[in-house]
Amino acid sequence: MGIFSNTPFAPKRVPQRKKKAESLGDLSRNPEQSSEFERDRQQLSNLSGTKIKTGSGDLIFIDGVWKKETVLDANDAVKCEELEKENESIEQQNNLLRLKVELLLNMVTDHCANVQTLEAKLSRL
Prior knowledge:
Layout: H1 24-29, H2 31-47, E1 51-54, E2 57-62, E3 65-69, H3 74-124
Antiparallel strand pairs: 1-2, 2-3
């Protein structure tokens, strides 16, 4: 029954949808869709190697994907070498700091153990 009338509620039927190809095998069975697929694939292969220059660098279209074209010059190699050296020194500093933290934790643990033994001796007296 409807809310404001005495007629029952009946939703409209949804029309049946057309089935889309679920795999490449379905495309090969339907020659019309297969030819469209092949045409699109051929157009994409024609674009392979296309370059676009942008403000941040060059983009190149390879295998259906835009990829950034990288060109290393002498400045990049020097900068990379400097960054590797800096990274190595920072890793060494990090290792030293970890060692110091571990040493301090061992000292605190040893001190706590000594305090507990002294407290136990005092409580016996």
